[in-house]
Specification:
- It is a single chain.
- With 345 residues, the protein is α/β, with parallel strands linked by helices.
- Helix content is 36%, strand content 25%.
- The strands form two sheets. Strands 14-13-12-11-7-10-9-8-15 form a nine-stranded mixed β-sheet, with helices on one face.
Amino acid sequence: MYKSAFLGCGGRARAHASAYRFVKGGKIGAICDMNEELLNKFGDDFDVSSRYTDLDEMLEKEKPDLLHIVTAPVLRGTNQRIRYPLMKQASDHGVPAAIVEKPIAVESEDWKQIAGLAEETKTKFIVNTQLNFHPKNLELKQDVADGKIGEIKFIDASARSTPVDQAPHVLQLVSSYIDNSRPVRVLGQIAGREQLDSAQPSPMHAAGQAIYENGLHVSLAFGTGMGTLASEGGGTVTHKRVFVVGTKGFVHWRFSSWERSTHEGGYEGGPLSYGEQDIQAQGNLTEAAFDWLDDEKNEHPTHLKQSLAEFNLLLGIYYSGITNQIIDLPFDPPDGLMASLKEHL
């Protein structure tokens, strides 16, 4: 039984903790938050007595096998990026594995810091893009892997939120349907500067045409201006989708519904309860972290280097939109990309 610890006791952390009812390989042993009210409420609700307000102290005393880093990428009330320093702390303490909330980065500078850490750390970092583990997604991906829709010819994927907010989920979903093939080229477009000064700076809208190393063409669109699917409602996070087209059919996963068409099964579809699917997915993602600790061969599908490649694609879309050029991937994003976006937009 592995021992887990939590950094951050806010609402998102509660979703991580609630999913432990689906987890068999570990249990929550310690929690940490500088806000003692949040800390104590979380500890009481989830029956965790080991509580800390200092991360170094918790890691030194508790020595967890898995650390959930459930914090925003930017320190509240400041412009300070905190993903890298917190991950570096975990790495320096020799934490065997850590699950980090998305987005893994917000701009060029922190992406490069974390990419450097990925090359030297022994910690198994995992990014919390849990849509990969939704039960219906797992089913549809198995259909694709079993050849039920034939050879994949095209993928169309989108999200109705700012790119930095929901693109990490959607880009990981695309990867998950094609065995984590990496993107090699992108032509992108961007629009809207309203969120460039926010805690998670991003253009309002972004679109791209990407080619992956397996030769597949993927169409991507993010932003509130992209419209909604009638069945998914009008919220900015209730439009997430991936549509995989093959020579013999298709699969289409959406926030609260799904479709499938195969030669043998014909057309099928129906509603989904996102909440029920998501809590199970969070548990599945956590269980997969313990599986990786059990055996090096069980590499987690949302491991850090894969997630960094997906975020590099998003930065490539940004840079393509600024330069009006096709960007070969992976690429070294220039510092000051957010300033360039402000000037361009």
